[in-house]
């Protein structure tokens, strides 16, 4: 178990049970455990940690555990070898033997300072409470596990309600329409920002944002995640660009490489173009038996399907709207994108109408598919992929065409919140660099630049520099300066409606594009500046 996994598991354990003491099997694990204990505001004075650690040359400073038993690996190995040799020399006469090797035990007489000391409260005093609405992602669960740290620092309790992607927008709107809204903090998908800000769902927090160090975020990220009509309505919480993942063991297999080059005249590599992407899908699905399918397509609902077509439209230099907000989806570029998507579907795992963002990830992790294009936020076990026994090594690269969608979520305040000061304190805490580092260890994808440049983190998770590099290629589906306030969900619904009909062979590609153009024009004509 790594230091990072020990940190994750300890946080999870404290959600259901506070232990009296913890015994670890290495100094590395001990450091992860104690980091979690101190993050939650506890001390090793009250929850002692005992480590069965390693042998070190430094006697007084090698452990941070209360008690550490240094296990000398070479002595233990020699003792085990002696017992084994005796058994081999006299297998019939020699009885089972146990041997005790004396090991030194050290105590740590100087407890370290905790990460944050709990704030003392009177038992009779009513604690402040903020309610938070968030989407079901690993990063949100990581934040929830650490919420005790926020309470320790501020004295403010949190209630975090978590909903799936396809339900959270409706809940945000329903909450806003209540006479007394339930939520103080709202997690929102970045395409929703103009609509939520213009309708008064989100509070203008420009004055509070001005107190933050904006340089900690990826350059220009506030423009996409926070800014609407020169005011700020949130802060960046989760940055998630589309990334191409692939089975490195398959792509490096000599026999597969030779066969692919013979068939296509190209080396077996991460695809540079969308055409090459479909060639690879065809190869793995139809021309080799080493794996079931080349890819999966998620089309269970609009939020899954829309990025599949939007990514392809952008790659072929098409647009849904121009800079003035005019509908321009019915174009030769979009025609190429739609044709490519239909070809991908024919090469994909057949359950695409039931497949979701998370299920196609599971297809990949289980070894059903060779390739995956998705947002990192849906890879729930990314930090453990290297240890997976079900599949080989994982490769990662820029998506074919190098025009990924900018995905991500922000945190904002409900305009009707009665606890805005406490709620903004939560936003400020959630985007601090130290919390961002913890969330990265726990499998999240932050909007903080330093996490993608941290030496230890990039060594542990070598895909982080790629996520940072990808940012320069990302773009929004709907331009933010188009002059009209578009409801992303309504746009998605129209686009996907006609793609579903195309999937069901109710019409051809040309007709699907034409009908999409007409309905989007009707939508924009009913939308006022």
Q: Per the principal axes of the C-alpha atoms, what is the gross shape? A: flat
Overall residue-averaged pLDDT value: 85
The Rg value, from CA coordinates, equals 27 Å
By CATH, the topology of the largest domain is D-Maltodextrin-Binding Protein, domain 2
Number of strands: 14
In the sheet with the most strands, the strands line up as: 6-5-7-14-10
Instruction: Flag low-confidence runs.
Output: 57-61, 110-126
Largest sheet: 5 strands, mixed
CATH class designation of the largest domain: Alpha Beta
Strand content: 5-15%
Please, what is the CATH homologous superfamily of the largest domain?
A: Periplasmic binding protein-like II
The span between the termini is 56 Å
Task: Give the name of the CATH architecture of the largest domain.
Answer: 3-Layer(aba) Sandwich
Helix content: 40-55%
* Tally of domains: 3
| Number of helices, counting only DSSP H or I runs of 4 residues or more | 20
